[in-house]
Amino acid sequence: MTTQDRSRIIGATTVGVIGNAVLGSAATDTTSRWYRRLRKPSFQPPGWVFPVAWTALYADMAAVVGQSLADLQEQGRNAEYEDLKKALAANVALNAGWSLLFFRGRRPGLATIEAAALAASSADLTRRSMAVNRGRGAWLVPYAAWTAFATVLTGTIWYLNR
């Protein structure tokens, strides 16, 4: 595999992750009257934490999964390559879907279920990446942890506002 091939795979992964981040950001409206009126748990981080955390986590995901995909293709592990691509696509779809369900749909109960699926998907993405390169894949553990936390946070918001 050439450096150009690796760059193409990593670049395509990055574009996909950035596209998802833009879609999720566009769907998020923390200034809406609906959101401001929601009761939130005491453990909810301050608003500034979310864009900082998500930016770091998206950059991490693009780098780790992009490199993992390139490694799999270089090693001729085509089935694992395709499976990781599908896992990433599902993960970014679930990620954007949460913002759409919670902020646009105003459905925290459904968003909680979706967040749980995202957390499971994030753990799977971490596992798959660690199978390619354990040390590099471990960089996705914070992403899996953050999405698990987001599930608890979303569920608590739903519970407090039923």
UniProtKB/TrEMBL annotation:
The keyword Secreted does not apply. The keyword Membrane applies. Keywords: Membrane, Transmembrane, Transmembrane helix. GO terms for cellular component: membrane. The chain crosses the membrane at residues 138-160. It is a multi-pass membrane protein. CDD domains: TSPO_MBR. It is found in: Membrane. It holds the Pfam family TspO_MBR. GO terms for biological process: tetrapyrrole metabolic process. Belongs to the TspO/BZRP family. This is Tryptophan-rich sensory protein. It comes from Corynebacterium pollutisoli.
